[in-house]
Amino acid sequence: MASVIMNPVTNTNSDRSKRKKKKKSMIKENQQSQNQNHARWKSETQQQIYSSKLLQALSQVSLNSPFPSAPRVGRAVREAADRTLAVAAKGRTRWSRAILTSRLKLKFRKQKRQRGSAAAVAAVTRSSRSKKRRVSVLKLKAKSLPTVQRKVKVLGRLVPGCRKEPLPVILEEATDYIAALEMQVRAMSALADLLSGTGSASSSSAPPPQPPPPTSQ
User: b/e string for 115-150 if b means 16 or more Cβ within 10 A?
Assistant: First the structure.
């Protein structure tokens, strides 16, 4: 009887030890994957791959809009750079998946706006009034929160796809997103230097303008 009574206790202890071992192994795997991601963003091969994909994306942007305005060009370049960065991340992180899905959401929103009617516009105005009141209440609640939670909320808004995530997820995504942005800055500055160098070289290699022929009097 004593052995029968002791068996459940030993089983629970063994289950707890197994769970602890699984948690430790998962934490180690997450740390190893994070280190590999950071090392990948710092490698030159990844920067070269991103630069080639970025050049392809920028060429498509320039072909699609032959005579665009300056703000639209800047917005298109920024969207192409962010989209290429998310593709380079291969959807392994929340921020990359959020960037890739944000374009589809914008398309659906535009289609809904085009199909809207006067009744829909009235409903939107009513909902906007109610939302304004709720936003004011949320602002009052945010002011009462401690500074740490406010900073965590701000950080979650800055990282794509992390607005409603807990602090460990936000920190993990933010570290990977910052490393990816640093690689993006290096790649884009290298491309800008390369393009400016080719432009200056082409202008210097061009023959100087010849003086006009003398007019006969």
Answer: eeeeeeeeeeeeeeeeeeeeeeeeeeeeeeeeeeee
Please list the pLDDT of the chain residue by residue as tens digits (217 residues): 444 455 555 666 677 777 777 766 666 666 666 666 677 898 889 999 999 999 999 888 765 556 667 778 888 889 999 999 999 998 889 999 999 998 766 555 556 666 655 555 555 555 555 544 444 444 545 566 688 888 899 999 999 999 999 999 999 999 999 999 999 999 999 988 888 876 565 555 555 555 556 665 5
Q: State CA 141 to chain mean position distance.
A: 28
Q: Are 54 and 80 in contact (CB under 8 A)?
A: yes
Contacts of 49 (CB under 8 A, 6+ apart): 88
Residue 90 per-residue DSSP state: T
pTM for the complete prediction? 0.62
Which residue type occupies 209?
P
SS3 state of residue 167: helix
Contacts 24+ apart (CB under 8 A), 156-160: 159/94, 159/95, 160/94, 160/95, 160/98, 160/99, 160/102
CA distance 102 to 100: 6
Distance CA 58, CA 53 (A): 9
